[in-house]
Amino acid sequence: MGEPNPTLEEFEQLLRERDALQAELRESVGQIEALSRELVETNRGVVALYAELDDRAAELHEAVELKSRFLSYMSHEFRTPLGSIRSIARILLDQMDGPLTAEQEKQMRFIQSSAKELT
Fold first, then answer.
1. Could you give the CA distance from residue 81 to residue 111 in angstroms, rounded to a whole number?
2. Nearest to 83 by CA among 112, 49, 53
3. Which of 51, 57, 89, 105 has the largest CB neighbor count within 10 A?
């Protein structure tokens, strides 16, 4: 019994290696759990951002719809009087109500062309 049993020493070395591996494994599991928690939190943030983007998109869609309806309404409201203005300018330019001065004719042509551009 003078010499230590090599098998026992090998067994003790294996136990130490196993303990070291278990410690590494626990550390790795802890890191993975921390990363998992961080990923869950990041995912919550992304989901919240997508929800906010969806809300903004809905608001923008509504604003575009309102703008379109407003422009359609205003276009109609402008066309009605502009048609009358164009007709009056045409009658005056045709000099049905008497001759125009050069300045009056210039102004009527300006009114007529401006009204035409707006319709």
1. 13
2. 112
3. 89
Contact at 8 Å (CB) between 86 and 115? yes
Q: HSE, CB side, 13 Å, CA atoms: give it for residue 95.
A: 7
Measured distance CA(56)–CA(54) in Å, rounded:
5
Residue 1 has pLDDT above 90, yes or no: no
- List the chain domain ranges: 6-118
Q: How confident is the model at residue 23 (pLDDT cuts 50, 70, 90)?
A: very high
Q: What's the rounded Cα separation, in Å, for the pair 21 and 33?
A: 18
**Whole-angstrom distance, CA of residue 108 vs CA of residue 119:** 17
Decide: 92 and 76 in contact? Cβ < 8 Å. no
What is the rounded CA–CA span in Å between residue 51 and residue 99?
Answer: 68
Asked whether the predicted pLDDT for residue 55 surpasses 90, the reply is: yes
Angle between helices 6-93 and 102-118 (to 10 degrees): 150
